[in-house]
Amino acid sequence: MTILFLFYIFSLFLTAISCKRNLLKIFGLITLFISVISFFYVPTESADLYRHFSNIELYGNMGLEWVLENRCNLNPLTSLLLFAFSFVGEPHLFTSFCTFITYGFSLLLLYRASKFYSLNKSVIVLLTMFLLFNWNYLLVASNCRIFMLYAVIAYFFYMEFVEDRLHKTALVVYLLSVLFHYGILLVVIPRLILYLYKPANKFVYLWAILIVVYFAYFGIPKFQAIFIDSVLDKVEGYKEYKVFGKWQFLNSLLCVMLCCFYALRKRTQLIAIKRFCILFWLVIILIFLQLSNFQVIYRESNLVASLSIVIFSHILSRNNDKIMRQIIGLQSIITIVYSFVYVYPHMDFIFVI
Question: What's residue 189's pLDDT?
Fold first, then answer.
């Protein structure tokens, strides 16, 4: 746990003392640092990462043909990635790879937003703290896939709806992400809905929202294909988890509510990124429709933190709201204190090569 504490101190210190033109290099160094730490993380048997390690060894022994025939029916890109890592010879590099992608895209989003909005250094340090403290490192290291996708998709949401770039690349990423982890559907569906949205056709948009809400709340019982069955089984399985208690839930909910509060209160200042905000609220709606499922709020609060970087950047670039900055800082500190008291002490690291 000490190494994680040093990581956060090191990250904020470097961000604070560096000049803005070196910010990308600093963020790259921070990403590299946490990726090296992840290499030495030892997952528990209940973690997804533990099963990934076993599958990396299994796929290497069985060969590509066996993987294609037996493990590519639901998350084919995951199986192919694990097979690729079987040639590396060290499964812990998979953890480092996933961590690098997750923190790399998260900090890249912050870097581009800070440059796009010409944020001053104090705001950059504040948002770096908010982002790092609210991304739950235990979940990133032990679950890997879904959090890697959260970071990547949040980045492309920003690129599409704020900088108005990479639209074709983003569409390919959205479609491929579903083949990597079907749980990302709750995030991708709102974006696909926005392909139907045109300001002059609000009735189509309204019906699209109603369909998404119905889908999220009731599911589609008529379709019994293996994909839908697996998704529903997974959701039901999450409801049986006992490890996620009320404090984890409330801590995640605090982050989401803070982001929603300022997205709503400062809505008149967010007109310039209207479509991004629509997407943000669609994601929030789907989260709250499944509020009874602790897993959804616990996991997707990390995604909301990344999306809120854009909203906070937009607001603070136009209005130096000191109270808002203090509240964001306080929430970040509460979250990291909670994590070091209740979450990170349960992580094991073995620093042996």
Answer: 86
